[in-house]
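Ticket #4471: complex job returned nothing on first submit. Input attached below:
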Amino acid sequence: ETGVTQSPTHLIKTRGQQVTLRCSSQSGHNTVSWYQQALGQGPQFIFQYYREEENGRGNFPPRFSGLQFPNYSSELNVNALELDDSALYLCASSLAGRSETQYFGPGTRLLVL
Amino acid sequence: KQEVTQIPAALSVPEGENLVLNCSFTDSAIYNLQWFRQDPGKGLTSLLLIQSSQREQTSGRLNASLDKSSGRSTLYIAASQPGDSATYLCAVNSGNTPLVFGKGTRLSVIA
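Support reply: We reran it on our side without changes. The output follows.
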């Protein structure tokens, strides 16, 4: 157990809808990163938040957005859902710093129909 | 751009066998490399983290090595057990993005 929690565990949406996924970071961690893992692939970096500001972004369109709150928990929002957004969404928390270990939550499985 | 490759993509071995999983990366300027285990439909469990200044790390039956100059890492599993069946992911921290992952090796240990 890493102390990182995510909700919900599973979610089914239809194309065009919007979704919000939530992540609570491990106690003391001020950085949260989000990853998308399609079936049979490795996780792909979406973005990272540090002290409530976006601190790096991968190759994802603007309809993927996020927030980090003062308690360092975080949300991932996806607008105008597409079928290819179906994936496991993972969040990871860490301390700030490029060499710090990231601790992953159990993930949210999103299915877009 | 950092790219991570894992070979083989899938591996099936009889129980008790020792095995090696391979990971290669294209940019040797890394901070650390991490091996994860992922059970079907689940999140990632960190197995071993090797800092760029280290050559290997051990935890129980697992040993991970790092050769940064050649861009390679191996995960050695001794005396494999059916409970080791999972997908093993290698991830590299280059500092620019938090982690770059390979696609994983799917391991099946047959009793």
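The first strand of chain A starts at residue 5 and ends at 7. Closing as resolved unless it happens again.
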